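dude i think i finally got it to work??
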Amino acid sequence: MFTTTQLDNGVLNNYAVEPQVYYAEFPAPYQLRRYLIKGAIAALFVTSLVILSATIS
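look at this
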């Protein structure tokens, strides 16, 4: 998990192991559709909260 080195004066240095780098893939059409639906639901939820808070105050 960590790579530890020791200097001549006894100080320990811990270095995290770096993960392998990879390129992200473009989402599939069904994933894009799900993102759109989730975004619409989130926008509707936030809009309803704003309207509710304006109505209450």
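The mean pLDDT is 91.
im so relieved honestly
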